[in-house]
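[stage:ingest] chain + small molecule (2'-monophosphoadenosine-5'-diphosphate)
[stage:ingest] validated
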Amino acid sequence: MVGGATVIVGVIGNPIEHSLSPRMHNAAFEYLGLDYIYVPFKVLERDLTNAVRGARAFNLKGFNVTIPHKVSIIKFLGAVDFRARKIGAVNTVVNDEGKLLGYNTDGLGALAALREEGIDPEGRKILILGAGGASRAITFTLASICSKLTILNRTGIKAVQLAKELKNAGSKVDGKGLTLESLEKELIDSDILINTTSMGMYPNVEESPVPKEFLHKDLVVFDIVYNPLETLLLRNARNIGAKPINGVGMLVNQGAIGFKMWTGCEAPKNIMRKVVIESLLGRD
Ligand code: ATR
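[stage:predict] done
[stage:export] tokens:
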């Protein structure tokens, strides 16, 4: 129960109504008996300055940041860690006695999600679809681990630019336009396919970024979409004997990293996963 000493964390964004993070974190606090509460804050773009002032004034221990504030929050923070700075976006803020510190846990969350499924990207060839915020977070994390990274994006120039930014990251990085030809060619010798586009996400559940016949059974297919739990891409992957991984693991693991920063405790990831899946199954 909320009391006078309850520590407050939350998430700022707009829209925020469908965020699964409040349920996920509050279930984890309750499970561990921590006197914390996670609150959704709907914040319009024009109100971000005041929202950050409010977070400090109300002594929030920290907060997640989601659309549309992930980039614009940076100018209000006291420090931004190297990873978030390179990505150019912050999704987690820690209030260290009035100093707001920004992090990006999406890429590490994706890496942890792969490892949980027994997949180690080290030395593997990765093909990633999309060059937006999620792709930036994942590619900046994986580029130094995998052996080859190819980025395909509908707007080809964004893939080329992202690949250029990643050139110093360690592995061979290439960026080009997403076409049937480039997809087919790149998939032949890829080990891991990662979809960061919104194709296949509710309500566009009949869409898939990849024709079924381009998939092969040795492929790991990681779709960061979690609504629906099984996208058409993942269903096709499962049907041909490839390994499907949905977006729940990334959501839980990015949250678990913030949870540890705010509480000092290891997050009970199985509880968080259970709540997320129950919430998604309860939806339309
Ligand atoms: P996120 O933070 O989830 O990555 P984003 O930054 O808006 O969201 O990026 C969305 C990505 O999905 C982009 O790479 C976008 O491609 P464009 O750069 O060409 O816009 C991609 N995307 C969205 N809808 C798509 C579609 N119907 N087909 C192909 N790519 C799509």
